[in-house]
Amino acid sequence: MDFVIFDLETTGLSPSQNEIIQIAGVRMRSGRILEGETFDTFVKPKARIPRFITGYTGISENHVKDAPDAPDALADFSRFVGDAVLIAHNGQRFDMPFIRETCARHRMPVRTVGFVDSISFSRRIWGGRGGHGLDEVMGRLQLSVHGALRHDARGDVSILAEAVCRMWKQITHDFGNCPIGLGSGVIPE
Fold first, then answer.
1. Cα angle value 172/176/178 (rounded, 5°)
2. Domains of the chain, with CATH numbers?
3. Is the pTM of this model over 0.90?
4. Cα(76)–Cα(68) distance, rounded to whole angstroms?
5. What is the mean pLDDT of each run of 10 residues along the chain (189 residues)?
6. Which ranges in the chain belong to alpha helices (H)?
């Protein structure tokens, strides 16, 4: 079974009011991150990127000026995903709603995909102790950033991919079946 671990950066926290400005993903198969099978693109929003977001993510107007618009970027991402199951950290509340709302806003036909929120791995291992944000998970797994930029989708995907592999191995060494129940989401057809 193939998985695509992915992350989005956006102009804010509201899927109905804000826009995607970066998408990154990496394929995982049989418990291995396939470094050669990655996806990343900036996305040109209709509105200007707020200064706060540029300060937080490092993504400026200069990064997105020649980027594809959301429908083209999401269509490319969907082709990259193929039949894989998606994994995102806090994706149930953030990434998947942004994709769903962006597709609806642009009247894009969608298809259903399997989805796992990697917070479920963290909760399964550590229960209710402490937080389950990516920084807390990194601390528990003793993961360092290794030169990856936090709050840049490419850097966060790199970190999350390693975290998912380590958490998965703490639950089971069987990479044939996901140890966390699959949910579903939508991406463009």
1. 60
2. 2-188 (3.30.420.10)
3. yes
4. 10
5. 96 97 97 95 97 96 98 98 97 97 98 97 88 93 80 92 96 92 96
6. 51-57, 61-64, 70-81, 95-105, 119-126, 134-141, 153-171
